[in-house]
Amino acid sequence: MCGIVGYVGKKQAVPILIDGLSKLEYRGYDSAGVAVMQDGKIEVKKAKGRLAVLEEKLNSEGKITGVMGIGHTRWATHGEPSDTNAHPHLSKTGKFAVVHNGIIENYIKLREYLTSKGFEFISETDTEVIAHLVEYYYTGNMVETVAKIVEKVEGSYALGILCDDNPDTFVAVRKESPLIVGLGDGENFIASDVPAILGYTRDVYFLENDEIVVLSSDDVKIYTTDGDEIKKEPFRVNWDISAAEKGGYEHFMFKEIMEQPRAIKDTISPRIQNGKIVLDDINLNADYIKKLDKIYIVACGSAYHVGVVGKYVIEDMTRIPVEVSIASEFRYMNPIVNERTLTVVISQSGETADTIAAMREAKRLGSRTFAVVNAVGSAIAREADDVLYTWAGPEISVATTKAYSTQLNAMYLLSLYIAQELELIDNARLNDCIEALEKLPDNIQSIVENKEEIQYIASKYYNAKSVFFLGRTLDYAVSLEGSLKLKEISYIHSEAYAAGELKHGTIALIEEGTVVVALCTVKPLFDKMLSNIKEVKARGAVVIAIAEEGHTEIEKEADYVIYIPKSDSLVLPSETVVPLQLFAYYVASLKGLDIDKPRNLAKSVTVE
Ligand code: F6R
Known about the structure:
The protein is an alpha/beta fold. The chain is 36% helix and 24% strand.
């Protein structure tokens, strides 16, 4: 999400910044900009659209010259893609310029505070608070000032900051968001990722959280927030450029699976404040919700599978009836929708033709529309009455993973929010759910760290002709996604079945060696799943089970068991899906397939 490049040296900064940003295009962006120190003053140029638009602007409006600068490609989160919202952002007097990657969680509070101190905001971004904060807290010493900013700001950030008091040095700092320092000969760099600087140097420092870097053309110094200098060993990068663009991973899909803990944290943390679910940007109040007689969830593909989970959790938590529909069906089925219906549409791209059409149909029938979207400023985000953004960052692999996971979290947040507003949930239960949400990133991290076990199982069955995924209730909902992941990237025939339904026909397909993935995480239905496993085992199936830690009795029945950390039942789908994503990934990888671009598929389906 977003790309940062910074340069200080003896050459012209702009071409180096643009070149570096072009190497970060894979991260996804919708606008770009640069700030350069020109004759002791900061000059900024920025433009919505591709880098070529920025270059065109730089050429037509007069070149900026100077040997130090910062550049940025922005993937919109707070505020739509526009020239004004593009980075770098200037402080009130123009003394400081800031580029930022990440999300400032307490930006509303900081914005109110700075407004009360006379600062005016011209953009809708969270980043602009940083530019003004730096000016507000500036002591004349940038290390001290940045340490103060780190103390005040909550969330994730990688920052590059120019100050016109220092025409030969600039500073950078990071927390949770990536930032590296490139060490050249008479020139130094910062960047979000290695490819941006690989044409200039292979010697880098990897920064830890809250390390403050001061760069000049012939020196790089790193400090703690207490102002103590830190000595670091440079790392020599030996990767080729294409590997580096995927952060060292072979495929975007794998990178995106690994990014899930961060993506989930970015999606949930800003919405949990003082023990409550806060959906700042949403206008659903208790009076409106009380009048609802139904919620309709409409989406396509994996986003539809999120809707199936959403139905279970919203109905369980709020007792409001929920219907889930595939968007291409909804638009033609004469749905029963009116002003007492809330229509929730879910979409990563925000551009899926069927989902847009379904949303318009719901609106036409008088329903309020509530969109769960990843791409800021997309068609669905613009047209919906309310938008709850998922902050997964750009997803490049065609098969969704991190967007799906953040959409699941949006469903948990929505169900908890409605329950809270209608006073259907007591504080103790709400606290348990919030605690479970907050633990989720760490739990998912522990699952992905166990990837070799899943790789081993995949190595045994990657030649399977057909794979069945079984589960009950929430596990059934997740099995839909596990099955789709496998078929779309490995081209293995696969079906998801409600485990109790199998014996009404489909069990006829189970024969010696058929692979069955049995999801057994719904606690009250665990014994029922054991019986279903016995049924398929008796017909020769090989069973790979997914169960919560501690449920070791399953080892007697299943051939393989993948354990996930114990958690509240509300959030378990988020854990259960991860081994299924990894299984599909490893199967496709062992088959040598084009994982990021599976045959016949497109990332954004903008036609009916
Ligand atoms: C599967 C996948 C698709 C999308 C579907 C909807 O891995 O990615 O099934 O979920 O095409 O796309 P969005 O969410 O962009 O509306």
